[in-house]
Design brief:
625 residues; alpha+beta; six-stranded mixed β-sheet; disordered C terminus
Amino acid sequence: MEQVSRDPDLFYVAPREAPPARRPPALSVGVLGWLRENLFSSRTNSILTIITTVFIVWAGGSFLTWALRDAEWSVITTNLRLMMVGQYDPPQIWRVSLVALVTLFLCGMSVALAVGVSRSVLITLAVVVIAMLIVPVGAAQLPPPPLRYLVTLGLENGPMLFTGEAGQKITVAIEPLDDNTAASAEHTGYIENTAGLQNSRNAWNDIRAQVDAGTLDLSQYDLAFTIALVDAQGDVLAQANSTPEARADSLEATLPANGWYAVLTTLPEGSTAAGAAFVRMDGIYTFTTDLEAVATRTDRYGPIPASLCPARADCRQVAERDLRFEGARSLATYLGTQVGPFLEAIVLPVIIGIVTALAGAGLGVFARRSPDLRKRLLRWLLIAWVVTLIGSWFILRGFEGSSLLPVVPTSVWGGLLLTMVLTIVSIILSFPLGVLLALGRTSNLPILSAVCTIFIEVIRGVPFITILFFAKLIVPFFISATADIDQAIRMMVGMTIFTGAYLAEVVRGGLQIVPKGQIEASKALGLNPIQQTNLIVLPQALRAVIPAIMNQFVALFKDTSLVAIVGLFELLGIIDFIVNGQQQFRGLTREAYLFVGIIYFIISYAMSLASQWVERTGAGTANRL
C-alpha cells in the first residue's frame, strides 16, 4: 500500500468557533434566481424576454382599456337567460336547474370519495362567493351615469319612462346645443337610442354631420320647450322651462313613493324654432327587459301606466336595450354598469350551486372514514350517475299529457343547455362505439374487420359538416320514418358516429402497445378471449390513450358550434342570433363572442384537468401492490 508522505512542518489548527454561514448569491436563488435562469440566461433570451414583455404590456393594456372604458357588456346581462337555455319555456326552466343541481351534487360526492376536498379549494370558493357578494353591493352605492335624450323639432317627444324608489333624488337639466363647438362635444353617459322610435343618438349624428358640412348653424338657436317630472297618475312633481333668453334650467325632486315616473317634453304648438337641446337626467337607474326582470318589476311597481304610455311606440324607457353609452367610462362606472348587474344576475345561482356541490363533497368526506361505507356509497353513486344521465333527458323533454313535466320540444332548446346536451350524449354513446369499432377492426374475423374498417374510413374521410347535413336532409329522404325524429336527436346520432370513428383509431393505437407476451400469458392462465380483452388488453390500452381520448372529447365539445349551420341555436348560434337579430346589439359582437370564448375555454380547461386527474388516479394509474 502506498504511503502518503506528510510534511512535518505543515499543520492545521481548527478555529475555536465555526465560521459564519454564508448566504448564496442573491442572483442565484429566489425570484431573482428563477428570472436569471429562465428569462435572462443569455443575451438572446434577455432580448426576447424584453420584447415579449413589452408586447404583453401593450396588448394587455389595450384590452383592459377597451374592456373597462369602451366595451358595452349589457349584451351579456340582458341576454344571459337566452345564452344559457335558449328559448326553453321560461316557466319550465326549473327543470334545467334541477338537473344542474343533481349533477353538481354527484360531482362533489365523486371528487370527495376519490381524492377528498382540500383546504385550498374551500378557501378559493369562499373568496369567489365573497367577491360576488361584495361587488354588487358596492356597485349599488355608486351613482348611476347620466341619461340624455335629444329635443328638436325633428323628433317626436314622447315621455321618458323610468322606475324610482321613495326618497330617491332626481335631477333633470337642460343642455342647449346653441354653439357650433357643441357638435364636437363628447357626452359621457347613456344616450337614448330606441331602435325604430325616437332615436336621439342617430338624430344627433345627423346634426353633427350638418354642422361639420356647414349646412347648419347651431348658434341660430331659438328653441323653447318645457320639461316636467310626473308620477304614474300624471301629476306634475316639478317643472322647468327653456327659452332662447333663459336657455338652461334644471329641476330637482325627491320621489314620494315607489313606482313609475316620466319626464315629459312639451314644445309650443306651431313652433318653427331651430336648434336642439339635450335633456340630462341624473340619479336614474337603467333596467333590463328580460322576462324575469319584467315580471319582478311589474310585481314591485305595477304595469307601465297606460296614461303615460298607451302604446310602446308612444314612449321611451330607460331600458338597457334602448340606451347607448357614450364617452369615457371610469372604473366606478364600469363596476356599477357592467360588473355589478352581471354578478347580481348570477350570484344566487352560483352560491346555490357551490353549496350543493359542497353538500355532496361533505357526504363523500364523511363516507371516506369508513371503508365499508365508502364501498357501498361508491356502488350507489355509480347507480345514481346512470339514473341521472338517463333521467335528465326525460326531465328536460317531458312527457305527453303530463301537467308536471309537459313536453318542451328540442327545437326550442338552445344556448349552453343544447351545447352540453349534445356534448354529453355524444361522449357517452361514442366511447363504447369507438371501443367496439377498434376491437372489430383488430379482430381475426375477416368479415367483421372489413366492415369496421370500411365504416371507420368512410366516416373519417368526409367532413363533419357533411355528416350533419346527411343526418338532417338525406336520411329522412331515404328513410321517411326518421322525418319525425327531432333534429337535435339526429344531430346527436351524427356526432356520435363521427366521434366514434375517430375514437376507434385512437383506441386501436392503444391496443397496439400491449405486449403480445401478456396476451400469451393470459392464454396460459386459461382466460378466454373476452376475459383477455376486459382484464388485460383494454385497461392498458385505454390508460395509454387517455390524453388522446380527452383531446377528441374537447374537439367534440367545440364542434357542437357547427350545428348552428343546420338550424340549431346552441351557444355560438344563439350569440349570432342575438347580435344580428336585435338591432341594439349589432355593434357589440366583440363583447358577445369574447364572453362565449371564455365559456368555451373554461369548460375545455375543466375537461383537460379531469383528464389529468384520471391519469393520476383511478384507471389512469397502474395498480400498486
